[in-house]
């Protein structure tokens, strides 16, 4: 994964430090629509939704001014369903180098033109969900033709050389045996890789969690093999400590200490603040402090270890170190 240049790294880390001290969020996830092109087995989104109350592109400026995050995820639902997604990104960026902006998408609607326009608008990282390295992906996402589309488009866009595409693979009981195959596919397509972990919280379904000793042993063997494949290109985006924490999450069936609402939060498609995408207590933009008091301070939920948490459950020195040495690695241009 390409590394953020020195000056930008310093700016991001500077803002991150200020936010940490001021108890403002480090990461904000904008769910720009609830609608989706897929009906994934592990997710509570899926299909068309009422879009009449969605924020408009210019509304995002107000949220950026109030929250000043250093990392933004643009997500959904499926964010590419918004025809004005490029405008949304422009408004989030506001002409500035920060925030570090990640588009989290299933890529069913991605084209070369959109990819280039989104890069130009300020997307720094494209996270593309991939659950299987073959057409079983279509069955899991209930979207015929999606895998073939990805396998044509991703290597072609990777060959442009921007090194900004990351396969984002959510580990479930269905694909725990495919962890290595997904890594092989990332290498074959010339892109990076990030693993995430299934949470029962979205749908209540326990079947996709890792429930047996065999599944846990498969996970550990596969992640050992992934660790052995790290190299200086940073193509495995998760840090070792995050993958270790992912193992513990499945082993212990949860990870306590969540900072949702404080270190990260979600802005819903219609503009409410939520602690995370799986906690539906809604607060207006000007009542973030109330969200911290009423939710974060007493939150005992330990039911996910999705990537937004995995960046931010660490203490500040560890977070800074991992970002300096990995994600935002210093490199002179
Ligand atoms: C909710 S989707 C939104 C963006 C886009 N539609 C996509 O699929 O990439 C973001 C990520 O959440 C993951 N996800 C969905 N359901 C999940 C669950 N129950 N637990 C953990 N991650 C989940 C998806 O696999 C995807 O990588
Ligand atoms: S995981 Fe993403 S693509 Fe699948 S239903 Fe949920 S929002 Fe849609
Ligand atoms: S552990 Fe935190 S981020 Fe995860 S579902 Fe619970 S409150 Fe949300």
Describe the protein in words.
The protein has helices at 6-22, 59-67, 85-93, 112-121, 136-141, 146-158, 179-189, 213-228, 240-252, 288-294, 307-312, 316-327, and strands spanning 27-31, 71-75, 100-105, 125-129, 165-171, 192-197, 264-267, 273-274. With 333 residues, it is α/β, with parallel strands linked by helices. The protein has an 8-stranded mixed beta sheet. Strand 2, helix 3 and strand 3 form a beta-alpha-beta unit. Helix 3 packs parallel to helix 4 (112-121) and helix 8 packs antiparallel against helix 9 (240-252). The chain is globular, with a radius of gyration of 19 Å. The protein starts with 5 loop residues before the first helix and ends in a 6-residue tail after the last helix. Mean pLDDT is 92; it is low at 329-333. Bound molecules: S-adenosylmethionine and iron/sulfur cluster (2 copies). One iron/sulfur cluster (SF4) binds next to loops. One iron/sulfur cluster is lined by residues 201, 258, 260, 275-276, 278-279, 299, 301-304, 309.
